[in-house]
Design brief:
The protein has 457 residues and is α+β, with helices and mostly antiparallel strands. It folds into two domains: 3-318, Neutral Protease, domain 2, CATH 1.10.390; 324-448, no CATH class. Helix content is 46%, strand content 12%. It has helices at residues 3-16, 25-29, 72-90, 138-154, 166-179, 217-223, 231-235, 239-242, 250-263, 267-276, 285-291, 299-314, 324-334, 356-362, 365-383, 391-411, 427-448, and strands spanning 19-21, 35-38, 44-48, 67-69, 101-106, 116-122, 125-133, 135-137, 207-208, 211-212, 336-341, 350-355. The strands form four sheets. The chain has a six-stranded mixed beta sheet, covered by helices on one side. A two-stranded antiparallel ribbon has the order 4-8. β11 (336-341) and β12 form a beta hairpin. α14 packs antiparallel against α17 (427-448).
């Protein structure tokens, strides 16, 4: 057994625990005799010809396209890496897969060779068959595995196959690639002309000059030169866009949409609920709004949210974001109000910091209104610089203040159209104070342990 074969076996057994059925010596002579390799969890079974020397031609060595060579043994490891990344992204800790996904590799016929996924109902179970060429663009490999996984998740409780929206498949694939600190697609090391390229496609989360690289950096670079797709374009894509083969900002916009939905309050459980109810309806939109009803009561509310996401995202310089810790500190300072306090008429004023809760509690509404509006504008600017893990807290402050202003403006107007001085704090004010106290507590918790913040309101 040569050193290369030993390396493959160590990778499969130590990292993925794949079950390996080595082809016989006679089968090795036949390049079209398939070997079978099972992933660690057992959900993926990969069939394909054993590794062989190939010549791919100049087209497959184009450095502008991230082609990868696929071999069945290593593809089993790739499937498991993508599977774990999907579960982590959705916040799923217990893997409850039911049906296996068979992946069949075949020699690539040319640049136009694509992936095909067959979903077949056989008695009381589903069969999933993925036909994949052995030379494919890296993002398409991840997207194919993601697509098959999402269909299997959606079909577990139903007898009809679910429709998986293209924005979900492409958005998830790009989110996994951009957010992974390892290369999800495992390639054979230094074998053939294509392996001379050693570029790692994954965007590692590394500290650079005091800032952090955001997983959405590639999407931001693309959307800085082209418009963000509208919801209509994302929800009803062209066949080329749905297949991921069209030029333009569809894929980047799909990732932005998915990322935004995952980071809203309770976003991950809502996304899981959305996926698991897809098969109940012929139109996936009928599953979307019930799953995210706490955030979007109507299509109009979703349109407003998406417009804000697009504006704030394209205005951000993701290469110059504050670190998570610095972001939390800046937000803590940003929600305080600087005021001058005099202890006596003859003393110089002292600078003091008041909380927004104190402003709501102690000031009349006319003075509050001016200060709160200034803070809302500052929060919008902060949102463009903070790390993505702290961004939900900034959104929480903005939503709490906007809701408070809207309610008070309605309740605090006299018949003459002038704002009244309120003698005390009403129920709207007490509710706003409770929400702001909770957000302050989230920031303190984050500063103690800088991890992703889950905002509950």
């Amino acid at each position: 057994m040569d050193r290369l074969t030993i390396l493959f076996l160590l990778l499969l057994n130590l990292e993925a625990g794949a079950q390996i059925n080595l082809p016989s010596r006679n089968a090795m002579r036949d390049s079209f005799t398939a070997g079978t390799y099972r992933s660690a969890s057992g959900q993926f079974v990969v069939h394909g010809p054993p590794p062989r020397d190939r010549y791919y031609g100049e087209a497959f060595n184009d450095t502008k396209v991230d082609w990868v060579r696929l071999e069945p043994a290593l593809l089993a490891v790739t499937c498991e890496r993508v599977k774990k990344a999907v579960l982590t992204t959705l916040g799923i800790t217990l893997d409850q897969w039911r049906d296996t996904i068979a992946v069949h590799l075949h020699p690539a016929a040319g640049l136009g060779d694509t992936v095909a996924i067959a979903v077949i109902r056989d008695r009381n179970r589903w069969n999933y068959e993925v036909e994949m060429p052995d030379v494919l663009e890296r993002s398409e490999v991840v997207a194919a595995i993601v697509h098959a996984m999402l269909i299997e998740m959606a079909n577990r409780e139903t007898e009809r196959a679910a429709e998986i929206p293209a924005w979900l498949v492409q958005g998830m694939a790009r989110e996994l690639i951009g957010g992974s600190t390892i290369d999800l697609v495992v390639e054979p090391p230094n074998k053939g002309r294509m392996s001379a390229r050693t570029r790692n496609f994954a965007a590692e989360l590394t500290k650079r000059d005091g800032y952090w690289v955001d997983p959405l950096t590639q999407a931001h670079d693309q959307l800085s030169t082209m418009p963000v797709a509208t919801l209509d374009e994302l929800f009803w894509p062209t066949p080329a866009q749905a297949a991921g083969s069209a030029a333009g900002g569809f894929g980047a916009s799909a990732q932005l949409l998915l990322h935004g939905l995952l980071t809203v309050d309770n976003g991950r459980p809502d996304m899981v609920a959305f996926i698991r109810t897809l098969a109940r309806h012929y139109n996936w939109q009928l599953s979307f709004f019930p799953a995210f009803q706490a955030h979007f009561a109507s299509q109009l509310e979703l349109e407003k949210w998406w417009a804000l996401q697009a504006v704030t995202f394209t205005g951000r310089n993701l290469r110059q974001l504050w670190s998570p810790e610095e972001s939390a500190k800046r937000v803590t300072e940003g929600v305080r109000v600087a005021v001058e306090v005099r202890t006596s008429t003859n003393e110089l004023p002292l600078l003091s910091q008041l909380t927004l809760q104190a402003i709501i509690r102690d000031w009349d509404f006319a003075r509050q209104q001016a200060v709160v509006q200034v803070k809302l504008n500052e929060l919008i600017l902060l949102r463009t610089r903070v790390d993505s893990t702290v961004a939900p807290v900034v959104d929480g402050y903005r939503e709490a203040l906007e809701s408070y202003l809207k309610k008070e403006e309605k309740d605090s107007v006299t018949p003459m159209g002038k704002a009244m001085r309120r003698p005390g704090v009403d129920e709207d004010g007490r509710e706003a104070i409770r929400e702001l106290d909770l957000l302050d507590a989230h920031l303190k918790e984050y500063l103690r342990k800088p991890t992703a913040v889950t905002v509950s309101r």
